[in-house]
Amino acid sequence: MSYLREGKIDVLHSFGHFGPDDFRRELAVDALAFLEEKDIHAQVWVNHYGGENRHNMGIMWETQQGDNPQSKAYHCDLTKRYGIKYLWSSNLTDCIGQNGRMDFYNLRTLVYEFLLDLRYRPLRNRNHTNQLMNVVSLDDGTKMFDFVRYPLSYTGHGTGYQWAGDLPAQLSDEVLDKLIANKGYIIYYVHLGANDGPPEYFSKPTKAALKNIADRYHEGVLWVAPTTRILRYHTAHKYLRWRHEIKENGTVSIAIDSTSNSVDGKYLPTPDQLKGITFKLKASKTCTVYLDGKMLAVDIRRNDAPARTTATLTGEWAERR
Q1: In the chain, domain spans
Q2: What is the rounded CA–CA span in Å between residue 189 and residue 42?
Q3: Mean local confidence (pLDDT), 223-249
Q4: Which pTM was predicted?
């Protein structure tokens, strides 16, 4: 329970693994009531593998009935009210770096995945744009952010189920270098519980790959965060409305007006929702950032190469002096 409250486990991986006729709406009512009673709140829903899980949501497969009001597996209205707004409906890709640079590898991969979908899979709601997420309208009219995960098993990156032993190949030095160069996102999924077992659990290559990821994170060249944190940051970055003016003393004053999108509507974000948002300035500039007339705490850093100043929101209000 503590991991759930702390956000270390931050994804609702459906309501469980059910047979085709086993799920009932009452189960969703009970499950969500339990989570709310325990003060556990999730914003991300991930479908469970298998067409027998009829309570999955999405418009890609006919078996995804969780958003169909005519189905006994319908629960989307309850789940949305609980707080779910990010959905993984089954979109997978082998592109390295969503919303990043479209290099030759990613362009070739997109074309290949499109041809595979054209041959084997329905094209409804397929993400062939290399965007991290798109707004999708579900069968009951509910709108959610439908995000894509990496890797796509049938294009050669692994065994098909993404076990711990696949991690060294899927997040190799080459993949991480390409991700950093492309300046994009990856929502990586893997079943770490499917491992080598005691006493080591993870193989030496898997441990080395995890250490490599940690080293790059601590070097400041790779951001590693829970799924919700990445999706919330991307939402704020993509839909933020702001304006600026330069004061007589040269200070740049930035005013954040709102965030507006078709899932949430128009609203004023909280400081925590803005955490990590960074403004790039000329090297000689400094800045202040305001939200609803109140000053936000900003981490100002000056870089020599290239010569510029960055102002990163810390997710807190500025201290009153």
Answers
A1: 2-219, 240-317
A2: 18
A3: 95
A4: 0.92
